[in-house]
Amino acid sequence: MIASNIFRWIGSLFTDILFLPFDWLRLTVANADLGWWVSNALNWGFLVILLVLFAYWMGESRRFVKEGTEDRA
């Protein structure tokens, strides 16, 4: 019974709280006909964050290779 309540709470958390911004975005874009760019703005934001983090990671990797400390066991 307790496990069932935990899974119901997790399901309620996602459907009632965490997905509200996506429901709002879906209804706003559908009613206002704002187009592809607005509906995918969140995805583009995540992509930009991913690219910045990847560039940082590659810069740090290059720094460790120059210092000779990479793969030292």
Number of domains: 2
C-alpha end-to-end distance: 50 Å
Q: Name the helix and strand elements from N-terminus to C-terminus, one letter apiece.
A: HHHH
The helix content is over 70%
- The helix-and-strand class reads mainly alpha
Overall outline: flat
- Helix count from the secondary structure assignment: 4
Question: Which segments are poorly predicted (pLDDT under 50) over 5 or more consecutive residues?
Answer: none
Strand content: under 5%
Biggest beta-sheet profile:
none
Mean pLDDT: 83
What is the count of β-strands? 0
Radius of gyration using CA atoms only: 21 Å
Explained architecture:
With 73 residues, this protein is mostly helical. The protein has two domains: 1-35; 40-73. The protein is built from four helices and no strands. The relative contact order is 0.05.
